[in-house]
Structures are given as structure tokens and as C-alpha cells.
């Protein structure tokens, strides 16, 4: 495994945080949109959110 500079590690960290925030925003949008479905399938969606 090649040696990585601190700048590369910093960029990698920022990239992972951005992906994580993107997934959270997508999940939030889907959950807000399917609010009535959430109330019906609350247990299934709780299992789904734990995967994230």
C-alpha cells in the first residue's frame, strides 16, 4: 500500500463525509415524501434506517 500524504487523507475524509450527507439528505427526502407509508411500515423502515 503506497504512502499517502496528509492532503490525500483529508480529501478522502471530506469525500466520505459528503457521500454520507448526500445519503442522509436522500433518505430524509424519501421519508418526508412517503410520510403515510412510514406510519404503516414503521418497523420495516426502522430496520432500513439501522442499515445506514
Walk me through the structure:
With 52 residues, the chain is mainly α. It has one domain. The protein is built from three helices and no strands. The longest helix is centred in the middle third of the chain and has 28 residues, at 6-33. The protein starts with 5 loop residues before the first helix and ends with a helix. The mean pLDDT is 74.
Summarize the structure.
The chain is an all-alpha fold and 52 residues long.
| Contiguous runs where pLDDT drops below 50 for at least 5 residues | none
Return the structural class.
mainly alpha
Sequence of secondary-structure elements: HHH
Total domain count: 1
Kindly report how far apart the N and C termini lie: 28 Å
Helical residues, percent: over 70%
Contiguous helical run count? 3
Quick one: overall form?
A: rod-shaped
- Beta-strand portion reads under 5%
Average pLDDT level: 74
Major sheet: size, sense and barrel closure?
none
Radius of gyration: 17 Å
Tell me the total number of β-strands.
0
Sum up the structure in keywords.
single chain, 52 residues, mainly alpha, 3 helices
Write the layout of secondary structure elements.
Blueprint: H1 6-33, H2 35-40, H3 42-51
